[in-house]
Specification:
CATH superfamily of the largest domain: Thiolase/Chalcone synthase
CATH architecture of the largest domain: 3-Layer(aba) Sandwich
CATH topology of the largest domain: Peroxisomal Thiolase, Chain A, domain 1
Number of strands: 13
Strand content: 15-25%
Number of helices: 11
Number of domains: 2
Strand order of the largest sheet: 1-7-6-4-5
Helix content: 25-40%
């Protein structure tokens, strides 16, 4: 029997405030029909004033721990593009609020691929015997970095957090993370970016440009890059796992856009009904996307014990990654 990281608990949380397409249409040149047709999104959740990314992460972490009937973890990893502060990292504050003040904690910044990157780090920590239980959280307050006048981004993104508790176990048991594939290409950094706020801006010798405070995305280029790299990464991790496409019971892709998820399924030759979707209700929540979809899929009965699951994502950097696991028998509710 070989040691592996096993999913022991899952939790998701979205802030209570809902923003519908009709609400956005009141201030942007758009409509409910336009948004639904191009993205598959009907609504998204956004944080209220005073709510932080760590608030979302703590709530999702608590739910994952409760789902696993666990009282803690010995490593906390938070994937986020919207940390509470540029310095320090958000993960130590999240760990402290969870009562874990003496464990290592750090952030992972890979934008929409962040959760898969963090999952790999957490799984590796378990298999290397660095940790017995790892809390992996994806959390975003993306609404705080969007240009309110940019309809191409304002209609897509939402806020939320999702978490998975990993425990030490065996590769042969349900819930085991089997294989992970990661990749990046920094030449595509400008496809998905916030230009301001870093050293690049501070050493430019010019006044900061207000527009550089906001998230920008080249949607058309991102679409084609995401489909290509998610499909290629998926094939790579399936090959290393020893699975065929027909073996996949559920595809849990980054909830970026309904057309991206459908295109990836088509590229793989996977029936579209095998995809777990919640983008219509929460929008694109970046690093929180996949764990939120896992929590929703479990709650809705779309993920059942023994299912062979493929995770895949593409994000800023550019980064991408995929993972395979079997779904464990977890309590619902």
């Amino acid at each position: 029997m070989s040691r592996a990281a096993v999913v022991a608990g899952v939790g998701g949380y979205v802030p209570p405030r809902v923003v519908t397409n009709d609400e956005l249409a009141q201030r942007l040149d758009t409509s409910d029909t336009w948004i639904r047709t191009r993205t598959g999104i009907a609504q998204r959740h956004v944080v209220d004033a005073g709510t932080t990314t760590s608030d979302l992460a703590v709530e999702a972490g608590l739910r994952a721990l409760k789902n696993a009937s666990a009282d803690g973890a010995d490593l906390v990893i938070v994937a986020t593009t919207t940390p509470d502060r540029p310095c320090p990292a958000t993960a130590p504050a999240v760990a402290a609020r969870l009562g874990l003040t003496d464990v290592p904690a750090y952030d992972v910044a890979a934008v929409c691929s962040g959760f898969v990157y963090a999952l790999q780090a957490g799984s590796a920590a378990v298999t290397a015997r660095f940790a017995e239980r790892v809390l992996v959280i994806g959390a975003e307050s993306f609404s705080t970095i969007l240009d309110p006048a940019d309809r191409t981004t304002s209609v897509i993104f939402g806020d939320g957090a999702g978490a998975v508790l990993l425990r030490a176990g065996e590769r042969e048991e349900p819930g085991a993370v089997l294989d992970v594939h990661l990749g990046s290409d920094g030449s595509m950094a400008d496809l998905i970016t916030v230009r301001g706020g870093g050293v690049e801006e501070r050493t430019r010798g010019a006044e900061p440009r207000p527009e550089d405070r906001y998230f920008r995305m080249d949607g058309k280029s991102v679409f084609f890059a995401a489909v290509r790299h998610m499909a290629e990464s998926s094939r790579t991790v399936l090959a290393s796992t020893g699975w065929e496409v027909a073996d996949i019971d559920r595809l849990v892709g980054h909830q970026a856009n309904i057309r991206i998820i459908q295109a990836v399924a088509d590229q793989l030759g996977l029936p579209p009904e095998r995809a777990v979707l919640n983008i219509d209700r929460v929008g694109n929540t970046s690093a929180a996307s996949i764990p939120l979809a896992l929590a929703d899929g479990m709650a809705n009965g779309l993920l059942t014990a023994g299912d062979r699951v493929l995770l895949t994502a593409f994000g800023g950097g550019a980064t991408w990654g995929s993972a395979t696991l079997t779904w464990p028998d977890l309590p619902v509710g």
